[in-house]
Amino acid sequence: MTEAKEITIPTADPNDPYANPAAMPSSADRNPRSFDVDAFPMPARKQDDWRYTPIERIDEFFTVFTPSGETRIEVGMIDGSPLPSGVKLTQTKLGEGLSGTVSKPSDRAAAVEWNSGATATVIELSGEIKQPVLVKVHGAGMDLDAFHLVIAAADNAHADVVVEHDGDARLAEGVEITTGRHSQVSTTFVQEWGAGSKHVGNHRIHVGEGASLRHCVVTLGGDVVRIRMDQDFGGEQGDLNMLGIYFVDPGEHIEHRTMVVHNQPDCKSRVVYKGALDGKGAHSTWVGNALIEPTAPGTDSYELNRNLVLTPGAIADSEPNLEIENGNIIGAGHASSVGRFNDEELFYLESRGVSETEARKLVVRGFFNELVEEIGIPAICEHLMDVIDKRLARGESDAMAQVLEEQ
């Protein structure tokens, strides 16, 4: 498999601003990309990449550390069967083999993860793999740890990979995903951490020529979870579908950042993230960036974020950004919203004998249902809906207890 090349942006000539149209600095080259921690300043709220993040709650992730090794990793098939011949699992030193070949860290936390860890778990996919590969990441303690995962699909590979996170942890995670020519790959990352857990991750994604990648992120728990995703295309007619689901409880901060770079002709991208926030101090952040370079005619790009605020006191930050440096495109757009329950939907259900609690549950299930179904893995979809129902029931119980306490 050929090494993915780093994103390069043309540099404008200050003496001739018309020599290279649309060559002004963009979000892809405004900040450094490096494996060197010192290439990045210490994060501060005044910096655009960190202005929504409670950096005082994750400052331990900004300095190189010695990993605890407490995090347990298991790799198998989702049905419990052995790994088939099309799945090759290896452990390598960081910087050797396929690790470090998909772009470079784009912020200080990602560079710290790279320099703190020692090994990478590498999953190579080839041929048609009928059952999803399951990677279990279990946090077994609150000592600071690091984990690096590489998912590499060969040309024409067809495969699904599910990465489940649970337990109690403070985890710095790096993920590299590369898809070969004309491959069809789905990756689903589920964060279901215990209370007090912290997870700072960076996904670096390279979509091959004519390849299709569905990248799903589901975050359902953790004191602070911040995941940044940086992507580019390796050839014409790549297709990227990024889906996100999150449910934020009181006091939690859940943050997702996507960076889609259209640097090849005739590629398509869709980014759709939906979240629900329940309880005082629940805080979500979604920042979606899309860049269409001069080298990417025929681009078709769209990004969407919807937030459902279930109770007063929750805060949802939603920021879509679109940079277009090429006028020869099919389309590019973005949208975002933050709102509460639709009173008409609730009234309609309650007027037909549905209780308020059940009506709220039905509305939230409908809000998430389209994305959950698109994940396409029945066991995961069913589990997600069960978790959402339990969160809603717990929220109702907590609200009732607060009312009784105030009385």
From TrEMBL:
Signal sequence interval, chain numbering: none
Source species of the chain: Bifidobacterium erythrocebi
Renumbered residue ranges of the record's region Disordered: 1-40
Family membership: Belongs to the iron-sulfur cluster assembly SufBD family.
All residue ranges annotated as the SUF system FeS cluster assembly SufBD core domain in the record: 148-367
Domain of life (superkingdom): Bacteria
One Pfam family recorded for the sequence: SUFBD_core
UniProt record, GO biological process: iron-sulfur cluster assembly
Protein name, UniProt field: Fe-S cluster assembly protein SufD
Biased composition (Low complexity): 10-23
